[in-house]
Amino acid sequence: MTFPVRIGFGAWSLPPHPVFELLAFAVALALLRRARRHDPLAAAQRSTVLIGGLAGALLGAKGLVLLEHRALVTGDPRQALALLLMGKTVVGALVGGLVGVELTKAAIGLRRSTGDLFVLPLLTGIAIGRIGCFLTGLDDHTHGLPTTLPWGVDFGDGIPRHPPQLYELGFLLLLALALRFGSRRTWPEGQRFQLFLGAYLAFRLGVDALKPTQPLAAGLGAIQWAALLGLIWCLVAALADSRRRS
């Protein structure tokens, strides 16, 4: 396999990242529209929360990618512009979206959990997007460190590397199965989202250690710090919910 892997549509040959990103958005949106049939929130409340979450996700995704690749940003203004326009991080979008939702809920006086509706769309969308990241190779900046393990992948520079995108695909599949199996029980409101977000952020905290990132502090990169802060929120929220139910 030669990276980047181009996607052919007749006479057209397209880069994989935008193709799978568009597919991820389309599938996630379709799943979200189906899930909204059982939405306990009023339409006006859901729309307001959704707008706040999207604004936070955009700021988080863009801001964190600039911080994670700050060496590229400071070294070349064109790289900074390219990252600002095209770059984004899933962790930044999740944590930023979480902050946006919580601020919006506080502003409108909404106290109930609102995240369960997004679990399946987010999980599926991230998984589809990671296929595009893998096929893009080195240009996507999601490749791993060199490895001697037999499943190391040459992304185009002649060096076998960890494929974190494939690790993430496998993890998301296992997480989907765990949540699906767990759906046979009655989940307290908000718990499915907390489990999804906490598990994903814990995974990213670990797997990003296999990527060639620039440490921000204490040996952790910017994405790892964001994942750690989001994971702390999940633990605090879970403890608060447990106390309310007891």
Quick overview of this protein structure:
This protein has helices at residues 16-35, 43-68, 70-75, 77-86, 90-108, 119-136, 164-182, 191-207, 222-245; strands at residues 7-9, 12-14, 153-154, 160-161.
Distance between the termini: 55 Å
Estimated share of beta-strand residues: under 5%
Question: Which quaternary structure do these chains form?
Answer: single chain
Q: Which stretches are poorly predicted, pLDDT < 50 over at least 5 residues?
A: none
Rounded mean pLDDT score: 90
Rg on CA atoms, Å: 19 Å
> Largest sheet, described in full?
2 strands, antiparallel
Structural class call reads mainly alpha
Number of strands: 4
Compute the number of helices: 9
Portion of residues in helices?
Answer: 55-70%
Series of H and E elements: EEHHHHHHEEHHH
Description:
- The protein is mostly helical and 246 residues long.
- It has nine helices and four strands; from the N terminus they run E-E-H-H-H-H-H-H-E-E-H-H-H.
- The strands form two sheets. It has a two-stranded antiparallel ribbon.
- Helix 2 packs antiparallel against helix 5, helix 5 packs across helix 9 and helix 6 runs antiparallel to helix 7.
- The N and C termini lie far apart (55 Å).
- The mean pLDDT is 90.
SSE map:
Blueprint: E1 7-9, E2 12-14, H1 16-35, H2 43-68, H3 70-75, H4 77-86, H5 90-108, H6 119-136, E3 153-154, E4 160-161, H7 164-182, H8 191-207, H9 222-245
Antiparallel strand pairs: 1-2, 3-4
